[in-house]
C-alpha cells in the first residue's frame, strides 16, 4: 500500500499558454507543471495497489508534500492530520489501508483554524471523515494558492486525503467556500473554471487532468456537449454535481461471441473519478452478471468475474454507453480488474471457493456493481466511475454547467492543447484524432501483481458476513477465518465509492 509507481514529467513550452508533457517513471514524485496562467496540467497517478488516481502537491509554509485522491464526485479537499486516529493505530490501518502522507499544522507558518470540529463528510460507500476546517497555502509547482480552505481529518478511515473537484455548492461545510479550482481562477493561474480528464487505459500508470484546457491528442473525433442536470438527490433545479443524461446502455458482441441481451435504460449518470467502479440499477447490473457468469461471496459486496475475460475470453465484447448520440464503448478487458493478485493462489485453492470459481483462471473484480448495494434504489440512477472514465475523455465546464465528452485515445503520448477562455459559453470547435492509437495489449495472467492495476471497491459488509450458507456461490460462511480476513482486506483497504 505504501509504494506507488509514479511518473514525473518534463514540461516544455510549445507556445504561449500551453504545456507539452513527456512521461517517465520516477519513484515517489507526483509531478505537475504550469505555463503562464492559462493551463495547468496535473498528473493523475493510477495507484496500482490502492485504487483510484492520486496526485501530490504541497500544503502549508514551508510546503508539506501530501498525496490526494482526485475526485470529481465531491468538492472538499482534505488531508489526514498527523494526529489522525487511523494513522496512529496499526489495527485501523490493517483494516483500512496504511496511511501515506499526513499534515502537521504546527509546522506551517500560514495555518489558521477556521472551524474546529466543523469538517464532517460521509461518502456513498458510507466512509465518514471528521475533523476541522482550516486555511492554508496550497502550492502547485511553485504557484501558491493562498488562504485556501481545507479539511483536516482527525477521525479518518482513508489512507490518503481527497482533492474535491466538484462545485463549491456541494462542500460539506455549513457555509459555502471557494474550492481550489475556484481559487485557481480568482488568483490568476487559469482563465476559467474548467478542466479536462484523461485517465488512460487500465494498463497505464497515469493519466492527466488539465486545468483550463483541452488536449486534442487525447480523444477521438468531436466532443459532444451535454448540459449538466440536477442529480438524483436534488430537491430543486440547481446543479451541484457532474450529472448528465445517459440515453442508453447495451452490450455489444462481435465475431464468435454469443449475443447478450441486457435491458437498456435511460438514466441520470454521475461522472465520478473518485469511484473505482460503475454502479447501475439492480436490474441492469444483474443482467450483466447473469450474462458473464458474475458470482458473489456472502459478506463481500464485490462482483467476481473470471480473470480470463481480461484476455481472449473477452475479445469482441464491449459495454456501450450512449449520450446524446455519442457512444462511449468500454472494452470488456477494461471491466476486469485483478484486485486479488496477492491472495489469488489462496482463493483458488480454498476448498469452498475453488467450487465457487470452478473452471475460472482466477477470480477478478468486475467493474459494474449494483447501486442497490450502496443504498440507492432509484431505477434511473447510474454512477460512472473509473472503469467507464478510462474509455472517455471528459471536459468538466463548471462555469457553463456543461460536459464535453468523446471516446478516449488510449496510450497517446502526444499533446495538442487548446486553452479554454473566460466568457466563452461553448467549447472551442476542436477535433481530436481520427482513430485510436495502436496500443499493445497488456497481459493479465492470474496471480501477477504487476501486469494489471489493482483497483477495488466495497460497501459495508452485510449482516450475513461469516454466517453459513447453503448456496455454493455464496461461500464466505464456509471459509477459514484467515482467508475471509485476507479477502476483506484486499477488498476494503482500497475500496473507493465517493
Q: Give the CA-based shape.
A: globular
CATH superfamily of the domain at 7-218: Acid Proteases
How many helices in DSSP terms? Answer: 7
Contiguous low-pLDDT stretches (5 residues minimum) are 1-38, 440-489
The oligomeric status of these chains comes to single chain
What integer is the average pLDDT? 78
End-to-end separation: 20 Å
Biased composition (Low complexity): 448-473
Family: Belongs to the peptidase A1 family.
GO biological process, one term: proteolysis
Keywords: Aspartyl protease, Disulfide bond, Hydrolase, Protease, Signal
Can you put this structure into words, describing what you see?
With 498 residues, the chain is mainly β. The chain has a domain at 7-218: Beta Barrel (Cathepsin D, subunit A, domain 1). 10% of the residues lie in helices and 35% in strands. The protein is built from 7 helices and 30 strands. It has helices spanning 90-96, 180-186, 282-291, 344-349, 353-356, 386-389, 481-492; strands spanning 7-12, 20-25, 32-35, 39-46, 53-59, 64-71, 78-80, 112-122, 128-140, 143-155, 161-164, 194-198, 206-211, 213-215, 219-227, 243-246, 248-253, 267-271, 278-280, 295-297, 300-306, 317-323, 326-331, 336-337, 363-366, 368-370, 381-384, 392-397, 402-408, 417-419. The strands form 7 sheets. Strands 3, 4, 5, 6, 7, 8, 9, 10, 11, 12, 13, 15, 28 and 29 form a 14-stranded mixed beta sheet that branches. A 4-stranded antiparallel beta sheet has the order 20-21-25-24. A 3-stranded mixed beta sheet has the order 16-18-27. The longest helix has 12 residues, at 481-492. It starts with 6 loop residues before the first strand and ends in a 6-residue tail after the last helix.
Amino acid at each position: 500500500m505504501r509504494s506507488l509507481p509514479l511518473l514525473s514529467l518534463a514540461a516544455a513550452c510549445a507556445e504561449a499558454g500551453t504545456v507539452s508533457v513527456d512521461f517517465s517513471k520516477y519513484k515517489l514524485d507526483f509531478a505537475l507543471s504550469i505555463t503562464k496562467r492559462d493551463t495547468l496540467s496535473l498528473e493523475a497517478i493510477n495507484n496500482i495497489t490502492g485504487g483510484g488516481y492520486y496526485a501530490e502537491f504541497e500544503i502549508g509554509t514551508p510546503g508539506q508534500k501530501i498525496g490526494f485522491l482526485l475526485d470529481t464526485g465531491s468538492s472538499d479537499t482534505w488531508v489526514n492530520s498527523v494526529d489522525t486516529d487511523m494513522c496512529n493505530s496499526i489495527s485501523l490501518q490493517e483494516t483500512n489501508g496504511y496511511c501515506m502522507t499526513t499534515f502537521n499544522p504546527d509546522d506551517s507558518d500560514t495555518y489558521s483554524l477556521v472551524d474546529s470540529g466543523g469538517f464532517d463528510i460521509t461518502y456513498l460507500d458510507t466512509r465518514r471523515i471528521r475533523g476541522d476546517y482550516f486555511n492554508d497555502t496550497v502550492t502547485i509547482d511553485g504557484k501558491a494558492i493562498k488562504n485556501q480552505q481545507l479539511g483536516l481529518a482527525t477521525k479518518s478511515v482513508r489512507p490518503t486525503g481527497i482533492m474535491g473537484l466538484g462545485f463549491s455548492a456541494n462542500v460539506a461545510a455549513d457555509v459555502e467556500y471557494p474550492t481550489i479550482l475556484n481559487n485557481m481562477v480568482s488568483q490568476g493561474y487559469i482563465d476559467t473554471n474548467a478542466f479536462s480528464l484523461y485517465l488512460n487505459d487500465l494498463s497505464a500508470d497515469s493519466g492527466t487532468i488539465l486545468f483550463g484546457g483541452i488536449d486534442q491528442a487525447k480523444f477521438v473525433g468531436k466532443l459532444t456537449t451535454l448540459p449538466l442536470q440536477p442529480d438524483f438527490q436534488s430537491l430543486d433545479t440547481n446543479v451541484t454535481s457532474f450529472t448528465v443524461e445517459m440515453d442508453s446502455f447495451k452490450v455489444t458482441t462481435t465475431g464468435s461471441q454469443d449475443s447478450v441481451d441486457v435491458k437498456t435504460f435511460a438514466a441520470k449518470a454521475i461522472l465520478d473519478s473518485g469511484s473505482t467502479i460503475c454502479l447501475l440499477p439492480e436490474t441492469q447490473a444483474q443482467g450483466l452478471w447473469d450474462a458473464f457468469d458474475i458470482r458473489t461471496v456472502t459478506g463481500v459486496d464485490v462482483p467476481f468475474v473470471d480473470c480470463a475475460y481480461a484476455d481472449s475470453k473477452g475479445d469482441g465484447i464491449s459495454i456501450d454507453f450512449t449520450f446524446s448520440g455519442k457512444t462511449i464503448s468500454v472494452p470488456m478487458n477494461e471491466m476486469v480488474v485483478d484486485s486479488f493478485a496477492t491472495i489469488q493462489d489462496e482463493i483458488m485453492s480454498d476448498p469452498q471457493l475453488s467450487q465457487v470459481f470452478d473452471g475460472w483462471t482466477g477470480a477478478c473484480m468486475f467493474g459494474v456493481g449494483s447501486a442497490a448495494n450502496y443504498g440507492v434504489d432509484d431505477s434511473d440512477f447510474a454512477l460512472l466511475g473509473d472503469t467507464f472514465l478510462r474509455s472517455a475523455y471528459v471536459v468538466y465546464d463548471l462555469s457553463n454547467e456543461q460536459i464535453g465528452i468523446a471516446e478516449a485515445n488510449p496510450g497517446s503520448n502526444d499533446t495538442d492543447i487548446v486553452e479554454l477562455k473566460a466568457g466563452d459559453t461553448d467549447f472551442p470547435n476542436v477535433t481530436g484524432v481520427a482513430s485510436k492509437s495502436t496500443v499493445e495489449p497488456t497481459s493479465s495472467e492470474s496471480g501477477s501483481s504487476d501486469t494489471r492495476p489493482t483497483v477495488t471497491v466495497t460497501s459495508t459488509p452485510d449482516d450475513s458476513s461469516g454466517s453459513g450458507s447453503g448456496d455454493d456461490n455464496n461461500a464466505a460462511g464456509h471459509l477459514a477465518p484467515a482467508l475471509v480476513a485476507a479477502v476483506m482486506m484486499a477488498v476494503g483497504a482500497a475500496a473507493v465509492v465517493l
